[in-house]
């Protein structure tokens, strides 16, 4: 009996040591020294109209011409119908959009990443974009093919933010000690964050290719881990009312939830007027969104926008 009790206690002690080791390794993997405890999470907001009106008309015109966003869309061959819809709709409003595929697809032009692993695709796409376009674009927007983005709203949101600072923006989620931007709502990196990320891609101790030592992290969590080592932290994008502007759900789902939760305030309880993204759309829903956002007009009604973003040269956008 004494022998059995002794064996049991030894088992408990060994199990405790093993659990502590796993916890420690997990903390080393995801944490970033003590610096993460001193970082205050930011809730970033778009500038208001009064701020924009303080800018001279000449400066506003220059901003509308010079503000450039490069769009990265990660796709796989099974996404071909979504791929077509994204190509025909909102990506025309990017200053440049490129598709990064897991393999060559004859139907559409893309950059072949030669891997099915989403984290490897993401990091390779970021490296490609930085190496080729770091001197041409200050903002880099990454999305999945189920995402619909309103690029003009993105530009407006970023208008007063300095791309030479380390911005990492979108819809933030907290997972343990790690706060990350969900890829489902789209991810925005400034050129400074791109530089910092690029400097770590060849340092496996800080930005490994294969994910966690014990468990595999999703690509958006992996990105957050790498960026933490570079001193870049996730920041949630909101409008003046505190509503998210990067959304991980579709408009239809938001309206359904609002009708259930706020039946007397469906519109107010749904979405931000300055929304940048919605996710989980089908190809048909992409085209419906395009119609609602860019083509439908109320005759005789004019919007007094303080700033207009001109389309890229040679663009056939709406």
From TrEMBL:
<dbReference type="GO" id="GO:0016263">
    <property type="term" value="F:glycoprotein-N-acetylgalactosamine 3-beta-galactosyltransferase activity"/>
</dbReference>
<comment type="subunit">
    <text>Associates with core 1 beta-3-galactosyltransferase (C1GALT1), probably not with the soluble active form.</text>
</comment>
<protein>
    <recommendedName>
        <fullName>C1GALT1-specific chaperone 1</fullName>
    </recommendedName>
</protein>
<comment type="similarity">
    <text>Belongs to the glycosyltransferase 31 family. Beta3-Gal-T subfamily.</text>
</comment>
<dbReference type="InterPro" id="IPR026050">
    <property type="entry name" value="C1GALT1/C1GALT1_chp1"/>
</dbReference>
<keyword id="KW-0472">Membrane</keyword>
<dbReference type="GO" id="GO:0030168">
    <property type="term" value="P:platelet activation"/>
</dbReference>
<keyword id="KW-0812">Transmembrane</keyword>
<comment type="function">
    <text>Probable chaperone required for the generation of 1 O-glycan Gal-beta1-3GalNAc-alpha1-Ser/Thr (T antigen), which is a precursor for many extended O-glycans in glycoproteins. Probably acts as a specific molecular chaperone assisting the folding/stability of core 1 beta-3-galactosyltransferase (C1GALT1).</text>
</comment>
<dbReference type="GO" id="GO:0016020">
    <property type="term" value="C:membrane"/>
</dbReference>
<dbReference type="GO" id="GO:0036344">
    <property type="term" value="P:platelet morphogenesis"/>
</dbReference>
<dbReference type="GO" id="GO:0006493">
    <property type="term" value="P:protein O-linked glycosylation"/>
</dbReference>
<keyword id="KW-1133">Transmembrane helix</keyword>
<feature type="transmembrane region" description="Helical">
    <location>
        <begin position="12"/>
        <end position="30"/>
    </location>
</feature>
<keyword id="KW-0735">Signal-anchor</keyword>
